[in-house]
Design brief:
The protein is α/β, with parallel strands linked by helices. It has six helices and six strands; from the N terminus they run βαββαβααβαβα. β5, α5 and β6 form a beta-alpha-beta unit. Bound molecules: guanosine-3'-monophosphate-5'-diphosphate (G3D) and magnesium ion. Magnesium ion (MG) binds next to α1.
Length: 174
């Protein structure tokens, strides 16, 4: 059995309502996808033990519901975060444009902690409005460590952004 490190690593999921944050968290930590997803109320936690570079790390994902309440909850939600996963929906431009606002708040509270940008719902390719190159350029310009395209529904590429983020966090520890 894998055992986690004594100190868990807090990762926050950021992004507008409906982009698939909770679905990604379920898929990543439990390997499941629910067709009908309950709206997240308040803060939910998901845990997973990962093995990265031969080290066991205990991840705690923090997931927030109700985007309107975010500003009031931001300090509690973001305090102590070691990394951020910023999610938008590739079929909704407004969710991409909102990333910048989340990112600024994140920087304000967590300083230099690394962040990854994630474009979800790539199974809906025919409805896509945000293309890879555009998101990649944005991610580079804002200092994200990478941009990843995923589908929680079809289980595409879900682990990659978390693993890259954790590798980065660990490399800074040593
Ligand atoms: P949130 O936590 O960011 O608010 P949710 O988002 O995880 O609650 O997901 C919002 C809706 O998007 C849900 O549908 C969910 O099933 C859907 N969804 C999540 N990920 C994907 C994906 O990769 N592809 C597709 N096609 N849909 C996805 P409902 O219908 O319950 O609102
Ligand atoms: Mg949610």
């Amino acid at each position: 059995m894998l055992t986690g490190e004594a100190k868990p690593i807090k990762i926050v999921l950021c992004g507008e309502g409906g982009v698939g944050k909770t679905s990604i968290a379920h898929r990543f930590t439990k390997g499941v996808f629910y067709e009908v997803m309950k709206i997240t109320v308040g803060i939910e936690h998901f845990t997973k033990v990962l093995e990265v570079n031969g080290k066991h790390v205990n991840l705690v994902l923090w997931d927030l519901g109700g985007e309107e309440r975010f500003r009031f909850l931001a300090p509690v939600f973001l305090r102590g975060a070691r990394g951020g996963v910023f999610v938008f929906d590739v079929t909704r431009e407004d969710t991409f444009l909102k990333i910048d606002e989340w990112y600024s708040i994140y920087r304000k509270y967590v300083g230099n902690a690394p962040a990854v940008l994630v474009g979800n719902k790539i199974d809906l390719e025919e409805f896509r409005v945000i293309f890879r190159e555009h998101a990649e350029d944005y991610a580079k310009s804002r200092g994200f460590i990478g941009y990843y395209e995923v589908s929680a529904k079809n289980n595409l590429n879900i682990e990659k952004p978390f693993i890259e983020l954790v590798k980065h966090i660990i490399s800074e520890e040593t």
